[in-house]
Amino acid sequence: MTNNRDKAYQLSSQDFKFVCDYVYDAAGIVLGESKREMLYRRLSRVIRERDLSSFTEYCQILRKHPEREQTYFINAVTTNLTSFYREKHHFEYLQNYEFPKLLTQNLASKRVRIWSSASSTGEEPYSLAITTYEAFKSLLSQWDVKILATDIDSNVIATAKAGVYDKTRIEGIPGQIRKRFFQQGTGNNRDKFKVVSSARDLITFKTLNLLHEWPMKGPFDVIFCRNVLIYFDKETQLYLFERYYNMLKPGGLLMLGHSESLGAFQPYFENVGRTIFRKPV
Ligand SMILES: C[S@@+](CC[C@H](N)C(=O)[O-])C[C@H]1O[C@@H](n2cnc3c(N)ncnc32)[C@H](O)[C@@H]1O
């Protein structure tokens, strides 16, 4: 139990339950008692920003205008932690194995489609774009390669689209790649680095709730669904695995996050590497 006595606002059990139900219905995200502190911090910020007096007042607004308030609210409660080349082995697998294979396998169509399905602030799709450049090299201009990057949070999609990162965010990227794919700002922006347009142009950024209808046709050669399923319950995970399966080409790859697994959907995929799953041909 959280002790709310010393806090600026009181989060009653009733309001906490209402907010948890709202997040679950809107985004599929399960918030239990262990997330109470996190929710308290994030919603306190919203209450201050909106100049409200209590959580109860905010809950009343959410009840009255569920649709209008949804984007702002969901943006406030999502966890967007990410980094360039997070879980490096996925990018190594693509560069060393999958992309060379696709260069032969897809030669007739010269088409490759990749989806970063919870892309957060863009580090994941940009790492994919750079890996694509590194693998396809000069052939890339003759191929139709596209990366789709989506997330439920419209703020992170705006950041991703801008493609500008603080120096500290790109420090772990090897020097050669940093020089080729990031342009340093000037004057007061010397600590900012913008992804070069050749890499940005490979990516289309869109807001998309994974629980809603998916407007794209696919099929995809590779889908990244990393570190988002952990926020969902088993039922939602299974529902999404089936949809990912249908969106993949036969032989296509599904990449999950380090603590995620296919659970009961495992028999439908072949496990070809650490959290790397292939839809059988
Ligand atoms: C922890 S980040 C993971 C980012 C990246 N995939 C990675 O592994 O580094 C999780 C992302 O999932 C997004 N998300 C949560 N629920 C979602 C939903 N229902 N539909 C789409 N994106 C969602 C969040 O907004 C957040 O940006």
Structure characterization notes:
By secondary structure, the chain is of the alpha/beta class. It folds into 2 domains: 13-77, Chemotaxis receptor methyltransferase CheR, N-terminal domain (Chemotaxis Receptor Methyltransferase Cher, domain 1, Orthogonal Bundle), CATH 1.10.155.10; 88-278, Rossmann fold, CATH 3.40.50.150. Helices cover 43% and strands 18% of the residues. It has helices spanning 13-27, 36-49, 55-64, 66-77, 88-105, 123-136, 154-162, 167-170, 175-181, 197-200, 234-247, and strands at residues 111-116, 144-151, 164-166, 182-184, 192-195, 203-207, 220-225, 248-256, 270-273, 276-278. α3 (55-64) crosses α4 (66-77) and α5 (88-105) packs across α6 (123-136). The protein is globular, with a radius of gyration of 21 Å. The model is unreliable at 1-5 (pLDDT under 50). S-adenosylmethionine is lined by residues 27-29, 78-82, 86, 118, 120, 124, 151-153, 156, 209-211, 226-228, 231, 257.
Keywords:
Chemotaxis Receptor Methyltransferase Cher, domain 1, Rossmann fold, 3-stranded antiparallel sheet, globular, binds S-adenosylmethionine
